[in-house]
Specification:
The chain is of the alpha/beta class. The chain has twelve helices and 22 strands.
Length: about 575
């Protein structure tokens, strides 16, 4: 029997970027919030002198324990789903700050096209351009409506970037908080080559601070040291924006946030179209508690948001056969695989130094910035050269044809350790009727609850996109004066290994139509007006960008929605 706790105005499930932003905004407004985090607490001090590639990058110190909870996957409904038993395709963060601790810091606002993708595609190409089975949907919000919330995130996080953006991305009403990061020789080669080809390169907007910065909440942080230990690591300097060094301290200083760690939420109680609270297990003791609340905010990772709704029987589960229901609908991933490696015999680069979001990119072949009339795919990819810091264990580049062991392998490894640059495309993943999330009927977690099951595979759309984008990466790499370039332009069946991207999206999609979305544009649930669901699970598709900027912008809008609802309950749509 769960111990019933005193009722609170708001309970937030998950204390990463989304939970931290919502908690900070509500507590600053004087609203009492309980934040539930199933992992342990963290602070900057936890990362002092821990440039340990083996521990963090290879043994996944910051990630979820897959022996206690994982996901199952299958490529289609004809095969049995099996659990992901070791990390490969994507990494599931755990602990205070969530994936906001181990991200790289690459910050891209989604394109205006993304938010109205169905309407814009039909307007330009007609209905027949969308292939059978592709379930494109507008998001129920426009870029211009979301733009002020992007600005809030950028000023809070101290996003570093150029003061203006190219005309093929969204307009900005205010420059980034700080100037761009340093330009490396590799970045200059990429940028110069792209300009010669008539493209519009720009510095990647970065959550790694280019200079010391104090944000509007008074949080002061130091500039990036370019150590190269960003992805899969916490930042010992606090230079990489993460919830633990930005929004969570602000919420805690108000005295209005009660943060409970090791609190694993297992269910949402609801009656009559409203949630009454959440049940959670205190994992060290196994004790069960029920936390009543006026508003429940789901702010956990994609899979956890969807799984919690399904196990709580809140909302209508998606049925791929009939196309009805919305919870679990439009799961999307990220389409990587298009790239060209440039090998140099006459140049060396200091590619051990870097930062997670240090690099240059272009969007000439992203979104609908180019004509798709005669192409066999929609959308596109952001093409980039990044210098994230190539660490010694995982970085071992050799040209094709090099033996996998022995003297020749060692000689090539030494020669090319600092003579290789990689140009890659990060492609959009668009939704299909047969790609979705549901509860696995066989496998359960350590608490006896069904695991999340993903049904997904790469489509012809994705394979054509990779082939096209790869040709553009080679065009740029060839222009960069390399001795030799090697292109990768093929994509096969999706597999849970090797690592590809942690950019999972969909399952609690937003929109204007309750029959094909779970939440409205304030991220308020159609089927339970006092439940707000926020994160990349809201995305109707995934863009050619990293998702964090759009997740952050939507979180600020959701916080505004919760505050409005508390003042005047009812639908905000």
């Amino acid at each position: 029997m769960a111990t019933k706790l005193p009722k609170v105005p708001v309970v937030v499930v998950g204390m990463g970027w989304v939970g931290g932003i919502i908690a900070a905004e509500l507590t600053k407004a004087g609203i009492q919030v309980v934040g539930l985090e199933r992992g342990k607490s963290r602070s900057t001090e936890d990362y002092y002198h821990v440039h340990d590639e083996l521990r963090y990058a290879n043994r996944y110190e910051l990630m979820q324990d897959l022996s206690k909870e994982t996901v199952t996957y299958r490529n289609n409904e004809k095969v049995r789903a099996l659990p992901m038993r070791s990390y490969g395709s994507f990494l599931l963060g755990d602990g205070l700050g969530g994936a906001g601790v181990h991200w790289n810091g690459q910050y891209y606002r989604f394109l205006p096209y993304d938010f109205e993708i169905r309407s814009k595609t039909i307007e330009r190409y007609g209905k027949n351009k969308t292939p059978e089975g592709m379930t494109l949907q507008d998001w129920g919000i426009t870029y211009d409506q979301l733009e002020p919330y992007f600005v809030k995130y950028e000023q809070m996080a101290g996003i570093s970037g150029e003061p203006t953006t190219p005309d093929n991305v969204g307009k900005m009403s205010k420059p980034y908080a700080t100037g761009p990061m340093k330009v490396t020789p590799g970045m200059k080669l990429f940028s110069d080559a792209a300009k010669k080809l008539g493209y519009k390169p720009y510095m990647i907007p970065s959550a790694n601070l280019s200079q010391d910065y104090t944000n509007p909440d008074g949080v002061a942080r130091a500039a990036c040291q370019y150590c190269g230990y960003c992805e899969r690591f916490g930042c010992e300097y606090g230079a990489k924006a993460d919830p633990v060094v930005t929004v969570l301290p602000v919420a805690q200083q108000t005295g209005k946030l009660e943060l409970r760690t090791f609190a694993n939420v297992t269910g949402i109680s609801h009656t009559g179209g409203k949630a009454t609270g959440v049940t959670y297990v205190h994992t060290p003791t196994g004790e069960e508690f029920f936390q009543p609340a006026d508003v429940v905010v789901l702010a956990s990772y994609v899979f956890s948001n969807v799984r919690l709704l399904l196990t709580s029987k809140l909302g209508k589960p998606y049925d791929p056969k009939s196309g009805t229901g919305a919870v679990g609908r439009n799961y999307c991933y990220q389409v990587n695989g298009a790239s060209t490696t440039a090998f140099y015999d006459d140049k060396e680069f200091n590619i051990f130094m870097g930062a997670g979001a240090l690099g240059s990119s272009l969007d000439d072949f992203n979104g609908d910035n180019f004509d798709h009339k005669d192409l066999k795919f929609l959308h596109g990819a952001n093409i980039r050269y990044t210098q994230a810091g190539l660490r010694p264990i995982q970085h071992n580049p050799t040209p094709s044809g090099t033996p996998g062991w022995g003297q020749a392998f060692k000689q090539a490894s030494i020669k090319y350790a600092n003579r290789v640059l990689n140009i890659a495309g990060q492609g959009a993943s668009l939704p299909f009727r047969h790609h979705y999330l549901d509860l696995d009927p066989v496998y359960k977690d350590a608490l006896g609850l069904p695991l999340m099951r993903m049904t997904f595979d790469f489509e012809d759309q994705d394979k054509e996109l990779v082939k096209f984008i790869a040709s553009k990466t080679k065009e740029i790499a060839d222009q960069m004066g390399a001795t030799k370039t090697e292109m990768r332009d093929s994509l096969s069946t999706y597999s849970i290994v090797p690592y590809q991207s942690t950019h999972n999206t969909g399952g609690t999609t937003m929109g204007a139509d309750p029959s094909v979305s779970v939440v409205n544009n304030y991220l308020q649930m159609w089927d339970a007006e006092n439940v707000f669901i926020c994160g990349a699970s809201n995305f109707q598709h995934n863009s050619g960008y990293n998702p964090t900027a759009t997740v952050g912008g939507l979180a600020y809008r959701a916080a505004e929605g919760v505050a409005k609802y508390l003042q005047k309950p009812g639908s905000l749509a």
